[in-house]
Amino acid sequence: MMIELILVGIFIGTMSGFFGIGGGMILTPILLVLGFDIKTAIGISIIQMVFSSIFGSYLNYKKGSLVVGEGIFVGFGGFVGGYIGGYVTTYISDALLQFTFFGLLLFALFRLYFSTNHEDESQKKSLSKLLLLSLGLVIGIFSITLGIGGSIILTPLLVGLLQYPLKKAVSAGLFFVVFSSIAGMISRLGSGTIDFEHGLFVAVASLLGVILGIWLKDHVTSKNHKMALLALYLFALGMLVKKIWFY
Q: Can you give the residue ranges of every domain in the chain?
């Protein structure tokens, strides 16, 4: 099992760096297939997200693709929302979590598919700090409740509604995951629902993948990057459908 978790960690880290996701949107379904229950899988995902999002955001900042600015306000909202979401999980049934996760992935797929590619950073709109804070709060609650970092919701909104360039939105999405995942882990520690034994294998292995993923992100066009992200959402949906309806 440990070798499988290490390989999964490298794969998830690559996805995290390339797509700017915490990794939970794809890691959680994989862990379900490997035999973990939904709440344990969510706990492992949160540990991995903390590691990959911090390391990935550091690399993005060093490369100049992460502009902290407004991200701090969205991130702080995500921190508060993630902390709340960590407690919410214990009161929600496994079936409801799975179906909510399914609906969230469908939303992200739809929103991203109909978004327009923006290469010019000057097209990015500016929003009020209060709106950004509120946006982060809502996304944080939903994302950590489902064991995902929240960027699958945030990134499509940044691209589709605020006209962020895709690669900047991806970096901002991963930065958001730093706040929401740390808050989620703190609240999960209070309720004792974190599996560190398995989680650390996945998390440490994911760091190698993050390096590879960010390198790949910097060497593809925005159009190909978008198509790859859509393919990832379809893959995650397929795995979740298999788990819910065929197991």
A: 2-246
